[in-house]
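Q: Convert this sequence to structure tokens.
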Amino acid sequence: MPLADQLYYIRDLLRSKTARAFSIVVVANFAVTLLGFVSSILIFRSQGPELIATIFPLVSLYLFLDQISDLGLSVAYIRFASADFEKGEETFHCTTNASFQAHTLLVTVFVLAAIVGAKRISILLFQSEENATWVVCTALLAWLYSLTNFLQCILQAQKNFTRIAWARVIPNVVKAALLLLLVLRKNTDLGPFLVAFLVSPLLSGLVMLPALDWRSFLPRKHSMAEFGRLFDFSKWVFFSTVAVACIAHLDIFMLRSMAPEEEVARFLGGQRLASVLPLLIGSMVTILLPKVSSMRSREEVRFFTRKALMVSPLLFLLILSFSFAAPWVIPLALGAKYQTSVGIFQAYCWVYAIDAVVTLSSLFVYNLSLVHWFAVLNVMQLTLNYALNLKLIPAYGGMGVCLSAGLIRVAAIPLMLYLGSRERMLSEAQSS
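A:
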């Protein structure tokens, strides 16, 4: 494509409604990430390896339960509700109600299963049953967190990004304030920290409720066809969601069970600070997924995907540039005792830079009935991740986790290139 056309596309994108919505979400995500950054610093600087190696695996557990518990229904909901919102209120309310009923049931079943198996989970993560009570509390937190996340999906389908922004920022401000209070009081008990995390989804739900239409939640009877439409799409998203959730949290779970607490704390120091980097990627997905999902033609999807991909090299270089600041940022933020976390942070800069390219190149998958390929890819990545962790963690500790994370992302590139070329050929065949 000529340079002039590329500049035209970029200028057109920057002036669009999508760009304005993107700026709102980026600012909100930046604020949330900054608050999470501050929260992590407060915990790392005030607590020893034992509490750090307990609280963050529990946080990973509730995030893991949230991600797998709806069987990919949230993504399927956005896929259909974004289009239904354009058709009329009644169609949108019907889709929302059916999805909310199914989501609530699924989340409840998964959380109850986690509560029943709390002792086994505690043994798996901490090699003892003494944290079983905290596992139960974490499962209940996951239930509440998952429901508020689905409310965000409703607003996302309606493209109400301003309300989503407030629902993300306000609870995290309160959570950071509570954590600061705990640090000032020199608290070393796990319970108050979990209460601080519990406040976040509660406040998020309260902020979103005024923007939600109560008609979406009235009791309704739905045909099997309505549920079938959702689950027919989400059955593939389910495999993909479970695999991605496992990949996101398997590293910490395996490292916690295979390495000493000091190594876990060293890894978490670099990994938690590096987790601020994907905020631009997450912001773009928040904006672009409902937009791409509501498109009607292959050519429209291809055109929009090309414009989005033009941003990916900039994101790649921007994220990678943070690695050069690591030798100064890590000791300043966490203290001199975390100097050894610098390498972890730098490695994750590469991981998230690759993520920027792979994620943006995969958006078209959700619109063009190619999501089963995504599921295959993610399951393959999970299998590879587990195998690599088994080999690399005993040899390299936390750095072995980084190597595994980078390799599974590089492995995704060939499939994305294949799907892109396949879709281009199909589109050209249809237009000829």
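The chain is about 80% helix and 0% strand.
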